[in-house]
User: Which sequence fits this backbone?
């Protein structure tokens, strides 16, 4: 049971990280750009961009820009670039599409050619940028790819969002690449939705700062004010789980799908809580609802694979693994599932190899995450 709780906790951590990636943080007095996290409504100042060929160019906020942080190992980030490149010519606003690669802090000529080849397949024909020494990753507090940042003329951030589901794609493209002008804002600063999103982001910041009660109270106010938003209930579900209150965690997850039944994150959060409580049939049903909304969504497949392992349904496990290997090949959780599957089939040598792969993937991912989040020391040449 302890192993099962640990696996479910990993999924819930993933949910929180993805929801918290565009998290907002109050800017320091007199500062237009936070050195740690980027607020919607903040102003992005000029910064130096680097091409994979070693050229440096200054970007200035003189035109609207769509910034996409992407990596070769993330198919969804490449889809985001491809979709936005295809949609931009139809927009009334002349957006600058700016894909920024985050594969490595420093890039050699061999890597440069591989990164450029991957990006050209999306239809993008501009300069191939990368985040040298993870400068933007650190300054803006990015945790995952794809992350899409939309800045209006003058550098005002209107959107900072992680992920690229079909639902996100349709909403972002229809909102920002439709018949709009440079001065049109999709969500007005005085709207209820805008205030709810700002308050919810501040609640995330309070939680990370250790003010759990204040964070929950603010999230509940957002939950009441914006009854059709699933995000506050999803966060509350995670926070209740972290406090080991599974009853409240399940109630909050159920409230998320009731608020917005078209949000796959609500369904996968409920699936993870049901799995935690030992209700695998209910967990698989919720995961199936998430997949029905977005067949490219990977977290519900992990839930279904783990539940299938519990009941010994090796056929369903193999089906889930075959899908996950296309999108999450280097995820340590996938290697663990493969190891368990091999154990069920009696292949102990293969299981041992998968266990070693899982450990290696976990250590590599953890090292990269730490390196991206540690501030640079004065005079340091690398991250």
Assistant:
């Amino acid at each position: 049971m302890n192993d099962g709780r640990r696996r479910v906790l990993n999924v819930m951590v993933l949910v929180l990280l993805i929801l918290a990636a565009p998290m907002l943080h109050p800017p320091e007095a007199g500062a237009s750009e936070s050195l740690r996290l980027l607020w919607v409504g903040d102003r992005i100042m000029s910064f130096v961009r680097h091409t994979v060929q070693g050229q440096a160019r200054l970007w200035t906020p003189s035109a609207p820009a769509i910034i996409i942080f992407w990596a070769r190992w993330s198919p969804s980030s490449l889809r985001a670039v491809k979709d936005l490149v295809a949609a931009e010519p139809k927009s009334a606003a002349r957006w600058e599409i700016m894909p920024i690669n985050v594969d490595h802090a420093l890039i050699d000529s061999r890597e440069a050619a591989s990164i450029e080849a991957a990006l050209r397949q999306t239809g993008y024909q501009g300069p191939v940028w990368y985040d040298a020494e993870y400068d933007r990753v650190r300054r803006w507090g990015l945790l995952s790819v794809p992350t899409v940042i939309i800045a209006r003329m003058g550098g005002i951030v209107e959107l900072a969002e992680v992920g690229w589901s079909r639902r996100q794609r349709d909403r972002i493209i229809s909102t920002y690449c439709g018949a709009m002008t440079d001065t049109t804002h999709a969500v007005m600063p005085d709207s209820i939705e805008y205030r709810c999103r700002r308050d919810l982001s501040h609640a995330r910041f309070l939680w990370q700062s250790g003010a759990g009660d204040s964070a929950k109270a603010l999230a509940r106010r957002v939950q009441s004010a914006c009854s059709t938003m699933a995000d506050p209930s999803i966060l509350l579900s995670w926070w209740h789980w972290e406090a080991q209150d599974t009853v409240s965690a399940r109630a909050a997850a159920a409230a998320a799908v009731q608020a917005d039944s078209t949000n796959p994150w609500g369904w996968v959060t409920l699936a993870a809580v049901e799995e935690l409580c030992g209700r695998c049939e209910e967990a698989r049903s919720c995961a199936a609802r998430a997949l029905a909304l977005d067949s490219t969504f990977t977290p519900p497949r992990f839930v279904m694979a783990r539940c299938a392992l519990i009941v010994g349904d090796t056929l369903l496990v193999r089906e889930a693994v075959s899908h996950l290997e296309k999108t999450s090949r280097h995820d340590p959780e996938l290697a663990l599932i493969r190891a368990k599957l091999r154990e069920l089939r009696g292949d102990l040598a293969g299981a041992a190899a998968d266990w070693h792969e899982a450990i290696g993937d976990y250590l590599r991912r953890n090292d990269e995450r730490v390196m991206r989040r540690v501030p640079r020391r004065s005079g340091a040449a690398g991250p």
